[in-house]
Amino acid sequence: MRQPATSLPSDSAAPSRPGDEIRALFSAHDVRDVECIFPDISGYPRGKLMPAGSFLTGGELRICQAIPMQAVTGDYSYNPVFPDADPDVRLLPDYQTVSLAPWASVPRAVAIHDCLELDGELCQFAPRSTLKTVLVQYAALGLQPVVAPEIEFYLTAANTDPAQPLLAPAVRGGRAEVGQSAFSLNMLNELAPFWNEFRDACRVLGITTDTWIHEVGATQYEVNLLHGDAVAVADQAFLFKYAAREIALKHGLNAVFMAKPIAGSSGSSMHLHISVVDAQGDNVFSLPDGSESPRLHHFIAGLQNNLPDLMLMLAPNVNSYRRYVSGSQAPTNLQWGYDNRTTGLRIPASGPSARRVENRVAGADANPYLAIAASLAAGLQGLQQPLEPSKPLAGSGYEQAHSLPRSMEAALKKMQHSPAARSLFGENFVTGYCAVKALELASYQSEISPWERRFLLPQV
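The chain above was modelled as a monomer; its predicted structure follows.
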């Protein structure tokens, strides 16, 4: 069961003012402003720009409570769960996230903030709050999740007309890639000016990356982040996407995190590798002799039992559901298997200390805070009850039923009517989240597509 909304724990509450290290950073780089940002429900950075002097003296920022739940269209829901008065929430900086803003044209810093109600409670509509609330439940059991995301995205040419398809940019030879260059080092060396600046940006922002690869699609890439604390890793994924978009624009490119941005090309995922450690730092998915523990199976069962109702947090947009195609290495169900990339849940080959579950369902378009929160909350229920999973699948997951929702509308209805979702995340969050997603879906359905004009205009 979800715990009530909570205030920040006293031992982790931020100090009222930045420390000497941040002051020295600002002084050394003559920082003028601070981007005081937080992720909205889409994982998009919102916030305010604050003078560096005000930030250093602990100046308080407030913002409308509705902003964390702003739709991708820029609209707001008028569901009664959102107060008519549209009250303020406080923005509380997490000083551990302060760094220089590598995309800025003048010296500027960036800091991720929590959204707090005026009484000190975490704002229940803010995604960072949602993840923190799940982690409180793990901590109560003496457990801590460890998470590592793999983020895929495309670099495309500038696109000035949204009615036109995205195109691969020209590379060193003067021509665009044609794709099917998975793991090519030659292709990974293309667009070097972007990559050089982006890698430097990741270092400045404290984003701890592991491997960088070229994926199957034309100018499609995957970057793996190192495993770590769930909030810290979600923060890094949030900043990763922000930095990629900003720096790509400086180079005349678009960094595209849509789940299926180009018809006929590979989709982009955000695979989540998850393990859980106890107070001693031991992986609870392994027994002392190195074999699997029952808790691994309970966690898998929790994912199988709950993720169908939480798909809207893993695949949050109308475009998300185009990715789930048989034979594409994107899942179509929640079968699980050992080192099996055709299943939604994969157990990679590893030693006992690294034993983990790879959730392959989340798309690159998912908000990392909410995708991680959904995965952890679902798995936790499996640990607590405990639940038992299906048998591991040795063959192809594509030969099993396509049980994931095939549309945003289906996922929305599933979550709206799910007692499990409301138990895990609370009435207000689920009602508010679904209200905003219903607004986005209605906006999409009101558009007339090129397909309709191409085929229906001359023939019906």
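The longest strand covers residues 144-157.
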